[in-house]
From TrEMBL:
Keyword NADP: no
Transmembrane regions: 180-199, 219-241, 253-272, 284-303, 435-456, 462-481, 755-776, 782-807
Keyword Metal-binding (UniProt): yes
Domain HMA: 94-160
PANTHER family the UniProt entry points to: ATP7, ISOFORM B (PTHR43520), CATION-TRANSPORTING P-TYPE ATPASE-RELATED (PTHR43520:SF5)
Naturally occurring in which organism (per UniProt): Emticicia oligotrophica (strain DSM 17448 / CIP 109782 / MTCC 6937 / GPTSA100-15)
Subcellular location: Cell membrane
Protein name: E1-E2 ATPase-associated domain protein
Membrane topology label: Multi-pass membrane protein
Record key words, sorted: Cell membrane, Ion transport, Magnesium, Membrane, Metal-binding, Phosphoprotein, Translocase, Transmembrane, Transmembrane helix, Transport
Taxonomic superkingdom: Bacteria
Amino acid sequence: MKNQLLEVEEKLVCYHCGDECPDDSISIEEKHFCCHGCQTVYEILQDNNLCTYYDLNSNAGISLKAKNFEGKYSFLEDTTIISQLLDYQSENLCKVTFYIPSVHCSSCVWLLENFNKVRAGVFTSRLNFIKKELSLSFNPTEVSLKEVVELLATLGYEPLINLESTEERKDKKNLAQRSLIIKIGVVGFCMGNIMMMSFPEYFHLNLKNNIDATYQKFFLYFNFLLSLPVFFYGSYDYLYGAWVSIKENIKKTTNVFSVDIPIAVAIITLYARSVFETFVNHSAGYYDSLAGLVFFLLVGKWVQQITYNYLSFERNYKSYFPLAVKVSRAGEESFVNVMELRKGDTIFIHHQELIPADALIVKGKGMIDYSFVTGESDAVTKQVGELIYAGGRQKGERLELVVQKPVSQSYLTQLWNNDAFTKEKVMPTTELANLFSKYFTVITFTIATVAGIYWSVFNPSLFWNAITAVLMVACPCALTLSMPFTMSTTMAIFGRNKFYVKNQGVIQLLNEVNEITFDKTGTLTESNSEKVSYVGNLLGDFEVSLVKTITQQSAHPLSKMITESLKISNLKPLQVEYFQEFQGEGIEASISGNLIRIGKAGFIKSANREVAHTHAFVEINGICVGYYIVETIYRKNWQSILTDLKKSFRLFLLSGDNDADKEKLEPYFNENNLFFKQKPQDKLNFIRQEQQKGNHVLMIGDGLNDAGALRQSNVGIAISEDIKVFSPACDAILDASKFGRLAEFLRFSKTSLNIVKASFVLSLVYNFIGISWAVTGELSPVLAAIFMPLSSLSVVLFAVGLTHLFARFRKL
């Protein structure tokens, strides 16, 4: 009996995905599946001897409830669209790269890496797990692109194919990083070999015989050769930056000296003195210190450039639009790229599909969800002849539309034509950093000049030593090293806590913020999470059955939500004698001899009150018994978060939704700081007006409707349920599960900047001690060359160590 019970329990678990099986009707060799989709995946793996896939993780698969795509990928049969998607195309070989959002574990990697064993005609399959990009090569004569995509979707790894997929990839940042890594490699190689060749000098070995002297000269000149790529290639950016800054100051276009100038002076002084020692005094120079300095500077620069490359902060509407849509032209239907839509084209939109261009309805009933564009959560009813704006999502039957404007001129794309998207945000350092770089160069040259003049009069033999020692010791390491290392450490700590910032400048900008502007829907509230509640007379089982029966007849989103909220274990089917839907008003039906009507207050005449929230009154046999309201669910601890932030910032709410929650929000926002029914352009304009008043605004939102405001703000943070799938034009992405720690992140950004300032102080102490010693003429160039990289390294360790210490103290 016990074994039988265990067997029953095993039968209720899907062998592929681990979901609960509704029954034991779908099975293969005592392996049970929750649906035919999971069964199909198992059969594919079994036919190709890939069932070791299930040994990697328990329940490793991804559930797929159906494999009938109903023409979803038919556009992949069009040769024009295929050529736009392929990276390479020939008669017998095609290459393509797909973004696969559902990749999440080692089982996914294993299965996709073995995809060529699943389908004949696929040559290679390589997955970049970090970027979730799958690179495939296949033979188009054996398998089509459409078949490849459908098979991936059947396995549960549906590729994300949108309008942005066809655009040329821009890898300028990757090329710049690659160039920097090569420089680090070259300089690191030279540094290691220079140090190895300098061992006799380090240990003061006396090389008296001719053979040893010959080797000593070889090491001397070999170090000189190794220093050439360090000086001319590794330090080129700093030398060129200093030259540009000097030219700009000569032309009077700026009065700020670049921090590259003192760095370049130190590099040139080290190199010139080393060359002098090599060819004039025939003694060892300071090539090891030169290579070490340049190496540390390049590593700091590399750390500064590193960001979360697998996150995209620059996506626009093309990331969300479908690649192709079915169009009727001259009586013929075909798929075309949405960017090729013209005025007058007839397009077909199905349930849950996004409308790519402003268009008129010519056939069908529209229930358009504009939350993607405006933030308004209520679906809008549209009749034949009415205009639908691009970005709306149809919820209901198939629509036939006539395009009024091409995609590039639609209402939605007007947002991306705004100046906010054409101008790059200025990422400042800090006022202290500007002052530091401005005066450091002048002070260094002044001290070196004064020291030189003094020793030229009183002891000319110390003239050269004093000048070169001052120029070699003085180095603005706090600005060039502590800033990138501290900020990159802060970025890593934030990333560990699921708060991803675009670059180090964002952390600095967060310190200047004095106002925070929130969107409501999807930001303060949970995305796609609504609670349906009933208010009114207590309904018996029969009345509840009447309500569920009538709402089941309607495709309206509110009717569907009411249907799903009514949990009736033994619902008896009732006779529907009559049913009619009044678009935008309500529904009416005669069920088992009872007249039931559900809808707005104007439609239900017996309703005697208005309700602020999305609602539906219920009338049974002429009596209004109550109403259903739909309320959004606010994020956990949202009140305490706003209360905490209100202590340090002015808070504003810009919502595209109605003002139903105004009373709930007023305690946390001043009454004049609440704005509802705001369009995307309204949000952008509001932030711009605040900036013109001298305020620094942090915008926190989600969705495409907030993209303009996020871009216009000084710092834009996008709240996302899935940080790798959704990322509009923002400066940072905050995982929705970490919304409660927003105030802590803002405070820690201030802490990190204070650590940089402390590093400045430490660097000034080092420079004061070193320069004081150097001007005496008693600091040898050797000690000066050692002192400079040592001080730089200690400042870096101080900054990074202190950052980690404070992060641990704050439990980040």
